[in-house]
Amino acid sequence: MRLYISSTSPFVRKVMVVLHETGLADRVDRLAVGGTPVDPGSLPLGKIPVLERPDGPALYDSRVICRYLDSLTGAGLYPEEPRLWDALTLEATADGILEAAVLMVYETRTRPENLRSVPWVEGQWAKIARALDAVESRWISHLSGPLDIGQIAIGCALPYLDFRHESRDWRAGRPALAAWERTFSARPAMVATVPV
């Protein structure tokens, strides 16, 4: 299999963590690619990650790739119902956090300064803050349970906020989530996939 990546993409990191957690990391070649919303390159949707596989068309986005990798190994990162719905909701929450955080980066890196919108950027951060508050108030018990895709997704979203938006201090007012992140970030799969 071949995985198209960017070393700083949080969506790529989620797939890489799943590769490590499922024992597939050595079975996938990684190819670095670039692109932006205004120059997407030749990949489907102009987004990464993309996984080429021997038994069918390329897969994208990270949610589809992670589900596929889990199905290859039966690792159980997608638990049985009813826990499945919580895991998928947490994954969607994390992906929403990441989408907003990436849009904030794009606004300052790809849009000309005279066209940038501070209220729009702050609106993206408000989405992130609401999502983090929901995780702090509702999802800590799930995060503390058996490993699943929801934990991996949240575990990749939080360090990305440190990586790109450190001055925002997502930990303020969220002690339980901050404590969980400290523990989760020490997992070997997380340590092996820290962006450079």
UniProtKB/TrEMBL annotation:
Coiled coil: none annotated. It comes from the Bacteria. SUPFAM superfamilies: GST C-terminal domain-like (SSF47616), Thioredoxin-like (SSF52833). Residues 1-77 form the GST N-terminal domain. GO terms for molecular function: transferase activity. Signal peptide: none annotated. This is Glutathione S-transferase. It comes from Cereibacter ovatus.
